Amino acid sequence: MTRPYDVLVIGGGNAALCAAISARRAGASVLVLEAAPKFYRGGNTRHTRNMRCAHDAATEILTGPYTEEEFWQDLLLVTGGQTDEELARFMIHESKDILNWIVEQGVRWQPSLGGTLSLGRTNSFFLGGGRAMLNALYLTAEKLGVEIAYDAEVTDLQIEDGMFLGATLKQPIGGATDIRASVLVAAAGGFEANIEWLKEYWGAAADNFLIRGTPYNRGSILKMLLAKGVREIGDPTQCHAVAIDGRAPKFDGGIITRHDSVVFGIVVNKHAERFYDEGEDIWPKRYAIWGRLVAAQPDQIAYIIFDSSVVTSFMPSLFPPIGAPTIAELAAKLELDPASLEKTVINFNAAVQPGTFDHTILDDCRTEGITPAKTHWARKIDAPPYLAYPVRPGITFTYLGTRVNKQSRIVMKDGKPSANMFAAGEIMAGNVLGKGYAAGIGMTIGSVFGRVAGREAAKNAKN
């Protein structure tokens, strides 16, 4: 690694590999530095399972068209308009080609999933999940001649006047090494695993957060870039955060700790009180709001309450539900006040109106006369045994990042594009995601901007 490279890619997930492959296919020599050990390579990509891409017609794996305009409207909805329209529309347009390009890199799709996920038309699922997708990308990169180093922690970046000059690498064996490259692609993720950094914005509540993905995304590369003149983008308190099982590990619990059962019951806090509309929208557009909602509750804990009539209606989690023959006994097991939970359930049941239940649409099953209302999929909780999942905020990735343009080139604080630095993936996701989330869009950001960053980095190196 003492020889100079055309392109240095820092990171080891989807965005980094797409950038490395793209740059190598454009003729550049490429070095990838992954801070994690080889077994844990790939950051949060290991835990993914699908990607959201625009397409004009049904395919072998997708049940119908998902136009660029519909994708844009979905993004507007979940972000509340907090997105860079030029970059977002560019990403959406480029995503149409990613469906085929990613297959050319060895990734395989599986037939679409139906049921309560409601993603069969919009999202493509990786055969074998995120780890299989990663393994395919790594295999392709290695066959193309991309060099990859693991346990490779970058401790310093040499940047002067918007130009990347080199990096300092630390490995368990061999000590510090100076890396020289003509161009930098930063694809090292967010800072969600850095609890102390999260506490700067969230306070003590961050101690109760669970990190769904890798413990290696500590934001060190992001912090270095921002300290050396790179313009930041995004609200540091915004992130992709979902409600996950409160019994999950602190780090790396992954997708099997997530709960898709909210719309089939009610959610209460430690005082046994409901605090938000559980039926606001179709799950892929609204599941990611629940992490922030739970984070705002006392002690950052909540409980999904449902009955035995719906246990086969949603994808099961790793952890079994907690059950009891009565609401009062369930409350005792959850260490909630029995009288309070009984009152909440009784009031909810009394407010449920007659309707035709259909989890695939915004149906007419709703409540009247209670606050907050449940606007869709409201059914009485009256079929024992009664069940519950404890949930906490599960942080996937943060939105504070580096500003980029359509070439994925990093923008400096003075507004000028950097001379030779690019970014892709979570580290620049805040350009597209000001807040909120739609299922699969993180992989879209990584793949699209990774491919662009690699292509443009190779072009830059040649010049």
TrEMBL record:
Asked whether the UniProt record includes Flavoprotein among its keywords, one would answer yes
Q: Which GO terms describe its molecular function?
A: oxidoreductase activity
Instruction: Extract the Gene3D superfamilies matched here.
Output: FAD/NAD(P)-binding domain, Succinate dehydrogenase/fumarate reductase flavoprotein, catalytic domain
Q: Which residues form the FAD-dependent oxidoreductase 2 FAD-binding domain?
A: 6-434
Q: Per its Swiss-Prot or TrEMBL entry, what cofactor is needed?
A: FAD
- Keywords, sorted A to Z: FAD, Flavoprotein, Oxidoreductase
Q: What is this protein called?
A: FAD-dependent tricarballylate dehydrogenase TcuA
The UniProt gene name for this protein comes to: tcuA
